[in-house]
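Structure ticket #2291
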Amino acid sequence: MEITDIRIKKVSADSKMKAVVSVTFDNSFVVHDIKLIEGQDKLFTAMPSRRTPDGEYKDIAHPIHSEMRTSLERAIIAKYEEDLKNSAAE
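Resolution: structure written out below.
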């Protein structure tokens, strides 16, 4: 499965959540509402989730293998940093 598009929507710079991301796979399947969050040491992704009636949050879509999670997270962070660099150059 290949990532064919990543779209970044930046959010408030004052927030720990830096962006909301949509990722397209194989030009055929898209996952919306992946969150890019600033942690203590680094940026990380949080998969789209919904709140259950008992107040827990459950992922709606997520990678099954750690290799896929790492690959997805690296691609998202690279695109975010590229977008930051391009907007700073403008």
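Closing remark: The beta strands are 3-10, 17-25, 29-38, 43-46, 49-51, 57-59.
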